[in-house]
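#lab-general

N.A. 3:47 PM
ok so I finally got the sequence cleaned up, no stray characters, all 397 residues accounted for. can someone with queue access submit it? mine expired

B.Y. 3:52 PM
send it over

N.A. 3:53 PM
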Amino acid sequence: MQDTPLQVLPYSVQPDGEGFIIGSPRSGKFLSVPGDVVEILAAFKAGRSPAAVHADYLQRHGEAPDLDDLIAVLTGYGILATGAEAPSATAPRRGHFDRLVTPALGRLLWNRFTLAAMAAVVLAAVVVLWREPSLLPGWRALYFPNETALQLLGVMLLGMASTFVHEMAHLSAARAAGVSCRFSIGNQLWFVVWYTDMSGIWALPRERRYLPILAGPIVDLVSAALIVLVLAAARHWHWGFAPLTVSLLSALLFVYLLRILWQCYFFLRTDFYYAASNLLGCKRLLQDTEDWLRNRWARWRGRAEPVDQSALPPHERRLIPAYAAIWLGGRGLALGLLLFVQLPLFASYLFLFWETLTAPGPAQPVAVTTWLSGLLFSTLLIAGLALWARQLWPRKG
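B.Y. 4:20 PM
back already:
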């Protein structure tokens, strides 16, 4: 047992239900631990050697701690370091936009006054919709009988831009709390998504995590409210908007409403899922539910359970069966949408494009907008399916 003190790097500790969340805000790595691990780490920080901590723990608890494994885990999470590891372990975890969106700018964007203004905009839109519900678009907002390719391309590009704004809202709210973030591109099932890695919010007290988690949906809701107000003003004050502009605004409003509905897909790692898991104190609810289902499947086949879940907190263990029903129902619904909506739509685009190319008579030039809209839609769908397939069948080795 090592008889010299360990090097303890800056770390955070936050109460989390029956345990604690500890981690390195700089590395962005966090883990849930029981209280005795926090005590051991505090002893290391006070300059006590592993041998001294081992003897003290044995005397107080009557059993020997497995300090070797604990030290290895804490070193991997950037909380402990040897002399050789210290420089890299202490390097700040810089995000792509950390210099652009400073904590000061984040606090300027997210404070009680801006939140009050956002609430006023949403309330005004609710009043307008109550008086004029016809402003609320239906699914036909995404049906373009005229200038189809141009409008589809416009909606897709506006949707991608609004997604970037959504993620910037998360990032700026997290930066307001001093948390470093990174932008990444990934997938939710077969949907390609942008997402903001803001693991550092686990270093914040539980009540301070909600704003960074919900900042994206808040901005989506405010943006949708602004579109409602613009459409209402254009209708009553006879603003000279071209029909194409009104059509695109209505379509974008419908996209915002769908995106807010998407957040209610609790069977995925959506913003509402993270807010609910934070409220319930279940940081790994989705992963633990998938492990629980994997164990049930193995038990049904007469095999050993592949995942040991004996250490799960009792309150999470009680929640998992109900959440498993949501997980299964949601995945089934999403798969049905893929098979009966997305793939047929993709096939229809391919068939239409083939008909255009092979139509009898003089060759008709294919508009650039048709090429771009079809290419963008196809690329996103194929990329999403490829990323999903990679998750289902990961490469071995």
